[in-house]
Amino acid sequence: MDVDIISEEENPMLHRTDIRFETTHEEATPSRLSVRDSLAAKLDKASEEVVVHELDTKFGMRKTIGYAKVYDSAEDALDVEQEYMLERNKIGGEGDADAEEA
User: What average pLDDT values come out for the chain (102 residues) when binned by 10 residues?
Assistant: First the structure.
């Protein structure tokens, strides 16, 4: 999967960068976690610092447009992001602890 960054906007008040990106893929729409990991690798950041907010694939197309927030640290993401978005991106302590116990 190829990830191309369309635009970046710095947000120093919240210690993050807002990013619009485009991915090209061969199969079905990629999962949120695989996009997050690919974007983190491209930006040389840890996966816990990247929160993917939206993925939009037009029917029959092999391109997905997305929006993500890249934080300076994982702690900044935990402080700012809403709980449901952290759960979707598998970031945080409580969700991970429950998964390990099960």
Answer: 92 93 89 92 92 91 93 90 91 54 42
Q: Which CATH number fits domain 2-89: 3.30.70.330, 3.60.160.10, 3.40.50.80, 3.40.50.300?
A: 3.30.70.330
pTM of the model: 0.81
Would you mind telling me the total number of residues written for the chain in this entry?
A: 102
DSSP character at residue 101: H
The DSSP secondary structure of 36-90, one letter per residue, reads: HHHHHHHHT--GGGEEEEEEEE-TT-SEEEEEEEEESSHHHHHHHS-HHHHHHTT
